[in-house]
Amino acid sequence: MKAVILVGGEGTRLRPLTCNIPKAMVPILNRPFLEHLVRYLEKHGVRDIILAMGYLPDPIQSRLGDGAEFGVRMTYMVEESLLGTAGAVKNAESLLDEPFIVFNGDILTEIDLTAIMRRHQEIKPKASIALTPVDNPTIYGVVETDARGMVKHFVEKPSWDEVTTNMINAGIYILETEVLAHIPASVPCMFENYLFPRLLDLGEPILSYPSNAYWIDIGTPEKYLQVHHDLLLRYGDEYIRTEGESQIHPAAEIEGPVLIAEGCAIAEDAKIKGPAVFGPRCRVDNGAIVEGGVLWDGVSVGKMAELNNCVVGTGSNIQEKCHIPEGCVLGDNVRVESGLKMANATRVEPDTYLG
Ligand code: GTP
């Protein structure tokens, strides 16, 4: 099957990490998110991938090229103005001539896509939707199903007294091409609140595929940190992995799980506690403490500075004795002057000077 990956959204909830790159390109364990998704699709036999792009398409196209490096063929569609999730797929209609997969471009999962495709082909509904359980369904679109797994209702962001299930739309669909006829061309349109409810109104069968497999939507800084925790904690606290050459002083204290890209310099008496990820060319100076978090490319952490579970964008410079506490998110090229103490979960736009 072909797959359409939706990567056109502005990723506003993930700002400032999405000011200079689209959400699909934010690094997960030092690789752009999309690389993980493309490898997953390839593993499930998907060789033809259409990327439905809008916001900041160039970094995606220049990284993935024709797809040969990943064993797939990439085709790119760019929307001049955003068409919404369903509108973006309608825009690719000329490329779709048999049942196809749609994937939200911000979901990291181990759902068995092969099994979903198999079930779709056995039961032959007009659409199949993967479902995943969540603790708090009130912030998502929940999907009610009958005993045979056919979808009965979609309820967007139900209040707690409307909640009848914790199974939500996982953002992974298989669609028959004929459903595209129900999507208006060239106007914004969403699957969740337009196409799927309309198919139900028309009596068209929609099959659910519930799964307890790992699933996370990386769309907020909290979830972005969470996915790193989830993936790294699988390796345990003995795990200290360096990718290429780095200078790590033997007197630096490092407790895993930690991933360190090439060209980093970790000084004497620096303390690092996982789960933490360092992008290429990061520097942690004498006596600095990094407890959890994700540092992108070329971040420097000055002497005696302390970072707790933060995300720091490319090229940012945190000078000595700063304190960047839990959940702060700094965009690219932020400079934090010596001794500055931030409030928890502060978000800082790129190119900001904080002095
Ligand atoms: P927020 O602005 O934070 O809500 O994020 P978003 O709009 O980028 O993502 P959202 O979670 O709302 O959308 C789910 C997926 O659909 C993401 O991978 C988006 O990139 C993608 N998407 C959303 N709207 C569009 C669109 O208009 N066109 C395309 N091609 N993709 C879209």
Sum up the structure in keywords.
seven-stranded mixed β-sheet; single chain; 2 domains; 29 strands; nine-stranded parallel β-sheet; 6 helices; 355 residues; alpha/beta; Spore Coat Polysaccharide Biosynthesis Protein SpsA, Chain A; binds guanosine-5'-triphosphate; UDP N-Acetylglucosamine Acyltransferase, domain 1
Give an overview of the whole structure.
By secondary structure, this protein is α/β, with parallel strands linked by helices. The protein folds into 2 domains: 2-219, Spore Coat Polysaccharide Biosynthesis Protein SpsA, Chain A; 224-354, Hexapeptide repeat proteins (UDP N-Acetylglucosamine Acyltransferase, domain 1, 3 Solenoid). 17% of the residues lie in helices and 32% in strands. It has 6 helices and 29 strands. It has helices at 33-43, 58-64, 84-90, 113-123, 191-201, 221-233; strands spanning 2-6, 27-28, 31-32, 48-53, 73-78, 100-104, 107-109, 127-133, 141-145, 151-156, 167-175, 206-210, 215-217, 240-242, 247-248, 253-255, 258-260, 265-266, 271-278, 283-284, 289-295, 300-301, 306-312, 317-318, 323-324, 329-330, 335-336, 347-348, 353-354. Strands 14, 16, 17, 19, 21, 23, 25, 26 and 28 form a 9-stranded parallel β-sheet that branches. α2 links the parallel β4 and β5 (73-78). It is elongated, with a radius of gyration of 22 Å. The mean pLDDT is 96. The chain binds guanosine-5'-triphosphate (GTP).
